[in-house]
Amino acid sequence: MFTKSRKIVQSLTIVSVVALALSACGGKTAQPSPNASSPKPAETAVASNQLEQIKKSGKIRIGLMGTYAPYNFLNDKHEVDGYDADVAKEVAKRLGVQVEFITGEFSGLIEGLQKDKYDALISQVTITDDRKKTMDFSTPYIKNAVNVIVKSDNTTIKSVDDFKGKKVGVGLGTNDEKYLRDTVLPKVGTFEIATYNDVITSLMDLNVGRIDATINNVFAIKPLVDQNKLKIKTVGEPIKEDAAGIAVRKNNPELIEAINKALADMKSDGTFKTIFQKWFNVDPNI
């Protein structure tokens, strides 16, 4: 009995040594348990292709502000409406899916895109080199000329060169805010920057004198000025011109290609021109 037990112990010892040796040499190539589940080839393909995910779900989730008329806003029926909304609906139609609008403050849209809250942003997201580092853009679908805006009776501010010592409003997290901080401040000297989560509040504050100026584009402010009878005006020549694109998460070439094709087809068959004229009463500027 003792001899038999010794043989068993010796056998177990040998097995343990061999197991340890194999573990040390090839731990990285260990095979999964037979019961472990592994993704099927088809599932892996879907997971790596956002366009296919969108088509499989039957909808594309579009992030936008919903407070930026005439680009995107809630109409009298509390539906998302505007130029961006019409572009989004037409792109979705050409992708063969429905559109689901999800509204939010502009300052949170880009983070929401990265966290998969949205499939794409169609909310006047300006194409910049910095943003290209963290997201991909479609071809531009609009150009916006940005002007200095002041009260109608203001005679002291004629350009950004007159901002020194003033209080200037701008959209939080926008390319215009970055422009004020990175370009205008170093050039003209110190002035206060007040940030806003929507355009109408900044214009209302300008109208009553809480701020001295703001910067924005004529397309954006005209319907708000008309509707609220604001006594404000644009001054000087446009300070810059921006192009906006449809933004998606990085490394989704299939989705970008499909969106670009949809935009190109819209331009070639006249649909894009119809949408542009509907909202701006002029031919497309791009």
Topology diagram in text:
Blueprint: H1 2-26, H2 41-47, H3 50-57, E1 59-64, E2 67-68, E3 72-74, E4 80-81, H4 83-95, E5 98-103, H5 106-114, E6 120-121, H6 129-132, E7 135-137, E8 142-151, E9 167-171, H7 175-188, E10 192-196, H8 199-208, E11 213-217, H9 218-228, E12 232-244, E13 247-249, H10 253-268, H11 271-280
Helix pairs in contact: 4-10
Structural class: alpha/beta
Spatial sequence of strands, sheet with the most strands: 10-9-11-8-12
The helix tally amounts to 11
Any low-confidence stretches, pLDDT <50, length ≥5? 1-47
The overall pLDDT, averaged over residues, is 86
Strand content: 15-25%
Compute the number of strand runs: 13
Terminal CA distance: 93 Å
Q: Any idea what the shape is?
A: globular
Rg from Cα: 28 Å
Main beta sheet: strand number and arrangement?
5 strands, mixed
Strand-and-helix sequence, N→C?
HHHEEEEHEHEHEEEHEHEHEEHH
Query: What portion of residues is helical?
Result: 40-55%
